[in-house]
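pasting for the record
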Amino acid sequence: MISIPPKIYARLLEALPRCGPFSTDAEIRAVFADGRLAQWRDSLPQANNLKSRVELLINYLGEQYNASRENALVLLLYVLGERILPSDNCHHELAELASEFEALSTKTQDKLKTKSARIPAHENIVLAESAYDDCRLLEIVPNEVTNFV
């Protein structure tokens, strides 16, 4: 999950309503006919007003990735920017936001890969698993399996 820095989040909240079709749920849903966004078209959050629609979309898409590990919010920013003439300031603003968020997304994914790579691959280490109050707990246990109660 990506934690969006407050400055980027504020810029997204300001730019998206001004540069994209966010007046209705149907308008933004139509943008998701683009093949890069189509997989999320039927699961978009709905809202009764512009501000809520933009906030919900940022939060939802910021956590979504396609099979190529491309972030859905980044893809939306690129798609919206491509729909606007290069002479319009929104074209450049959306491309800049997409680039910044893409770098943030890549950095976050790299950190997650590094953390998972730290788990040693050794034949004597077993992952013990347990369910507790709808949470899954994993523990690295050398040479034995521990039962959780």
